[in-house]
Amino acid sequence: MTSTYDLLASRLQKAFDSVAPGADPVLRPSDRSDYQANGVMALAKQVGKPPREVAELVVGALDLSDIATVEIAGPGFLNLNLSTKVFNSQLREFSSDARLGLEKTNSPKTVVIDYSAPNVAKEMHVGHLRSTVIGDALARMNRFAGNTVIARNHIGDWGTPFGMLIEHLLDLGEDKAVAELSIGDLDTFYKGAREKFEANDDFKQRSRLRVVALQGGDKETLRLWKILVDQSVAYFAEVYKKLDVTLTPDDNVGESFYNDMLDDVVKDLTAKGLITDSDGALCVFPPGFVNRDDEPLPMIVQKRDEGFGYAATDLAAIRNRVSGLKADEILYVVGTPQAQHFDMLYAVARMAGWLPQDVRCEHVSFGHVLGPDRKMFKSRSGGTVKLVGLLDEAIERADAALVARGSELSEPDRILLATDIARAAIKYTDLSTERQRDYIFDLDRMLAFEGDTGPYLQYAHARLRSIFRRLDAPFSAADATFALESPQERQLALGLLALPEAFDVAFSTLQPHKLCTYLFDLAQRFTTFYEACPVLSSEGALRAERLALCELTARTLELGLSLLGIAAPQQM
Ligand code: ARG
Q1: pLDDT per residue over 229-287, tens digit each?
Q2: Which of 30, 190, 400, 488 is deepest in the core (most CB within 10 A)?
Q3: Per the CATH hierarchy, to which homologous superfamily does domain 4-82 belong?
Q4: Among 512, 410, 405, 389, which residue's Cα sits nearest to residue 449?
Q5: Is any ligand 1 atom within 6 A of the Cβ of residue 154?
Q6: Are 428 and 457 within 8 A, CB to CB?
Q7: Whose CA is nearest to atom 11 of ligand 1?
Q8: How remote is the CA of residue 379 from the centroid of ligand 1, in Å?
Q9: Closest Cα to residue 45, out of 74, 14, 73, 23?
C-alpha cells in the first residue's frame, strides 16, 4: 500500500513539476496542520516570481481529489489537512496488515553486516556493545524489509598477541587457564600474559617463537590456539544470549578464516601493479590519503617480516564477501576511530576491481560510551568495564524497581520481566542516540519509566495491552469508523500513519535513532490522547474508534521495538 506521506508527496510533486520540473515540495508533518509543504519559497526564487503567486500556481495545478484540503499560509507555505476518508482507508488497511503498512522490498538484496567483532581472550567492552546493538538492529530491519542478511562476526582471533597468550596458557596449565577463561575472566588472563611479556625477556622470546609456530601451522600450537578461541567464543555467546541479539555461532567468521586467502590478495594486487615495496613491506598507496605531513599513506598488505595484519585480512574479507557471498551491500558496524581504515579499504578494493561501483559499502560508525565523569567509560581500577556486569546490574536494579512498585509476579517471572526491561534500557539508550555522538552510560536514567527511555516505551505498550485485558467482549477493529473528532485522536492517528515514512528514513540512512524518535513521539501522542479521551467508559462508535486507535498504537510500538531488538512485554 502507498503510505499517506507518499500519497501526498506524489500529488505535490506533479504540481511542483508543472512550475519547474524536479522542484522539491519539502513535505513535512506539521503542528499547524496535518502536513505542510515548504518548497514554494525555494521554487519562487528559482523561477523569479513572488512566493504567493507561485503558491497560487502550485495550488491551481494540484489535484488532491479527496485526499486532503490545501490552504496557503504566510509567505507561501501550503497547509494540508487529510480528509476523513483517507484516515479511514489508511487506518483500516493498517489494521488488517500484520506489517502495519510497511512494504517488503520488491528487489531483495544480500546484505553482509559485519558487527560485534570482539577479540579472543579480551573482555568485550562498551565499544563492542554499541557495535552489537546497532548491528543487530540493522540486521533485524533488513530482514524485515525482505533482504537476505549475512551476519559476519569478524572476531579478532589471529595475530602476534597469540604468541604470548598461548605461552601464558602453558604457564598456567591448561586446566587453570580454561577455568579462568570459562568464567569469563578474560581480562585477568590477558593482563597476566601482557605483564609477563613486558617484564620477562625469556617469556618474550618464547612468545615470538610461538607466533612463528602458529603461523607455520604447528599442530600442537594450533590446538592450544583453538582452546583460547573456543573458550572466548563460548563466553561471547553467553553475552549475546543475555543481550538477546540474533548473532549465532554460524556468524562467527573470524580473522583466521581468511588466512588461506592472504597470499592470493598479495598476488592479485601485485599482478595489477598496485603494490609498492616500502622498506621491505608490501603496501598499496590509494590516491588521496595522506598523513599529517602530507605524505602518502600506505595500506600495509604484508609486513617486512612477511606477516599479515588487520588490513590484509579485511582486504581478503571484502573480496570474499563480494565474489563469494555475492553481497549487494556490506555494512561495517565499527567505531568512528577506524574511519580511515575503512575508507582506505574501499579505495584499495575498488582499485583492485574487487568492489564494483554498484556494491554499497558503508562504515556504520559510532561514538564513544562515556562514564559519569564524561571521560571514556572505565572500571574503577581503570580497566575495561565488563558488559555482562553492566547487564547484570541493570537486571538487578530493574528487579528492585519492580518489587518497589509492588509487582505481583512470581520471582522467576519477575526476573524475566526485569531482564527484558534491562535489555530495553541499555539497547534503547544506545540506539536512540545519534550514532556518531558519544553518550554517558547512566543506568538510572536508562532504566527510568519516564522520559525518552526503553522502559517508558515498554510501559506505554503494556498499558495499552491492559486496556484490552479489561474488555468484557472480544474486540474487532474492523467495526471501527474513524471520525477523529477530538484533536488528540487526530494527532494519534497521524502518528500511526507516519510509521512507513519513519521506518524508511531510519532504514535507508542506517540511523536507528530516527525510528526511536518516532516511537517516543507516538508514545507521547498516546499519553496525551489517553489523558483527554476516555476509552473504556465511552460508548458505541466512539468506544470502538478509540479502542481501534489503542490497538493500532500497541501493535505499532511492539513492531517498532522488535525492529530495534527490544521486547514488548504484555504486562509490566
Ligand atoms: N576486532 C576489531 C576491534 O575490536 C573490530 C573488527 C571490525 N570488523 C572488521 N572487518 N574490521 O576493534
Answers
A1: 999 999 999 999 999 999 999 999 999 999 999 999 999 999 999 999 999 999 999 99
A2: 190
A3: Arginyl tRNA synthetase N-terminal domain (3.30.1360.70)
A4: 405
A5: yes
A6: yes
A7: 314
A8: 22
A9: 23
